[in-house]
Design goal:
Shape: rod-shaped
Number of helices: 6
Order of helices and strands: HHHHHEEEHEE
Distance between the termini: 92 Å
Radius of gyration: 39 Å
Number of domains: 3
CATH architecture of the largest domain: 2-Layer Sandwich
Number of strands: 5
CATH class of the largest domain: Alpha Beta
Structural class: alpha+beta
Strand content: 15-25%
CATH topology of the largest domain: Alpha-Beta Plaits
Helix content: 40-55%
Length: 214
Amino acid sequence: MKPRAWKSTILRPYFALVLLVIFLLPMLFLFQNYCKKASEINALKEEFAILKPKLTRALLNCNHTSEFLERYKNTNHFYLEKYLETMQFQTQKVQCIEHLLKIPEFTSAPSLLTQLDQCRHQNNSLRLKEVCNRVNKDIQETELKLMHPVSIGTEDLFAILSIIENKNIGDHQPEVGCPQLIFKSFDLKKTTTQDQQQIFKLDFELIKREPLAS
């Protein structure tokens, strides 16, 4: 094309527009591509924001489960039956009453005989009843409750708490093989007897957690 023809073409009104369009097309393409990528990234961020708490909980649960199984791997499944339900309460009081009953003047004392019967009665021992049982992966969880409240002394209370909470309380020490025991409810009422001794009425519910037996 001759120089004069080029000059004529450049001076036409639409030529600048054509040049602008040619210049902007790559930029529009890049902008469109950027917007698409940005949209995909935002979608991934939203999805990750939703999944992150679930992943975190799953990871924590996994770690917690592993730690739990390692800590309680030597649990005695019959720990409560062996150490808690065989406990005898108010032994000092029983010994005192038995000593008094050996004295001729108190041999047939109705109040002493009644107290001795109450201390020795089977209904004053801990008897647990299974309420429900759940299994979550490798962990077995059992809810238990006392079949009836029990009357106990101060040292009896310390001994019970030591066995359930798996720690030393006063002169009382826990036994080997304790599962994870959690009080679901705990009701303790204190009364004073005629001889000014403190007696507690105890009722509670427990959650027992232990590794699932293989």
